[in-house]
Amino acid sequence: MGSLLTCSTLVLLFVVVFLVECNNAYYPGGGKHRRFASHNYKDALTKSILFFEGQRSGKLPPNQRVTWRKDSALSDGSAMHVDLVGGYYDAGDNVKFGFPMAFTTTMLSWSVIEFGGLMKGELQHSKEAIRWATDYLLKATSHPGTIYVQVGDASQDHACWERPEDMDTPRSVFKIDQNTPGTEVAAETAAALAAASLVFRKSDPNYSKILATRAIRVFEFADKHRGAYSNGLRRYVCPYYCDFSGYQDELLWGAAWLHKATRNPTYLSYIQANGQTLGADESDNTFGWDNKHVGARILLSKAFLVQNVQPLHDYKNHADNYICSLIPGNPSSSAQYTPGGLLFKMNDSNMQYVTSTSFLLVTYAKYLTTSRKLVNCGGSIITPRKLRSLAKKQVDYLLGDNPMKMSFMVGYGSRYPLRVHHRGSSLPSISSHPSKIQCSSGFTIMNSQSPNPNILIGAVVGGPDQNDRFPDQRSDYEQSEPATYINAPLVGALAYLAHSFGQL
């Protein structure tokens, strides 16, 4: 009798909690916050997307809004007789790394897929940011059996502090093929192309088809020729974007995106057959440019929760386990937070995990709400509202609700990082200083205390340390360097928050 009572009580609790949740449906803080936003999320959204224009490589378009940037790297690829002009510089240097660029593209696309309908005027800018990347990725995958994964010698590039417009370091080109495989980069590139194909499906169906077709081919290459690019290209890609998590996560991630983009049952069969060996049920709760396990779990849970793809029912449990690991105070929690409340994973570019986690929280909350489901963390019922509240707290910390009382997004709020670890931002622009700044000359400025003359609006830096401290030193790349993969997932989270508080 006691066990029946316990079961009935639990069911009743689920019903009550769900009804309360529905009443607060899409508002992270519940009814009392419906009129009062902690921040101008719309302004932050606009700036987070604008940042990508400051990272553009190649021939800039007439509508370029970050006007202190000019054309750069116009002969990229010529060393290998291929056109590799375009794409993004991933962070504060002048190298184009294919691995993080592809992940950036996937996350920008996922942001638009989930929240593009809320973005209004910023939707077009988001699509332009995605297309700047996918146009490049199509070039990088134009030769069957080959993917060009990097332009620029990182060691020599890092020996200089110069504007991208002045670059005179070697624009060496590195590729993967069947003799030098790179499964993780290839599978991530396939994921990016597949995700982007969904973004353009209605607005540009022909381009969407091109992206999807290429994604299929690239994934086939990734799966057939297995091996880590960190092995064959170690001296060029390590320690910058070495693959530490293996390539199994990218294969699952790539298959998940192809399943979503193509609806081809081949990919569902692939996921069913390989899901366990590719690590879907591991307890690894890190999500970023290197590790896609958690992202794959959340994405595949949608197929079960929203589309009722029954063979993927286990991914709801996998996703729930991840959520439980984040919630402070419950027995399954393993996440670390700073005294000020920021999720803390590691010293180097920690903010990337804050933005990616915030995105996953609001996205999973959306899936749960649509399917009328909750999360049970050892008897503690976690609602979508709780997930949104935790995501909002992380984003609010990033935007200024922290012990430093500063925003970690450049150009947002009254106080933000002034000495960002970024060559183009820290050196005088071409307009103000037309003559070339030589390779080593720039280090005088890099090591100075002077603020960056060019405001890299929207750039989110690596962020504070585990004690909420941020020195704002240009030489401190771990804390002061921005990156495209920090901003990309934040776009979706900000779009959701801006809409929730009536700013869009």
From TrEMBL:
GO biological process: cellulose catabolic process
GO function terms (MF aspect): cellulase activity
Active site, per annotation: H421, D472, E481
InterPro entries for the chain: 6-hairpin_glycosidase_sf, 6hp_glycosidase-like_sf, Glyco_hydro_9, Glyco_hydro_9_Asp/Glu_AS, Glyco_hydro_9_His_AS
Signal peptide (residue range): 1-25
One Pfam assignment: Glyco_hydro_9
Keywords for this protein: Carbohydrate metabolism, Cellulose degradation, Glycosidase, Hydrolase, Polysaccharide degradation, Signal
Gene3D superfamilies per UniProt: 1.50.10.10
EC number: 3.2.1.4
The protein's enzyme class: hydrolase
Start and end residues of each Glycoside hydrolase family domain: 41-494
Catalytic activity of the protein: Endohydrolysis of (1->4)-beta-D-glucosidic linkages in cellulose, lichenin and cereal beta-D-glucans
Family, similarity comment: Belongs to the glycosyl hydrolase 9 (cellulase E) family.
UniProt xrefs under PANTHER family: ENDO-1,4-BETA-GLUCANASE
Protein's name in the database: Endoglucanase
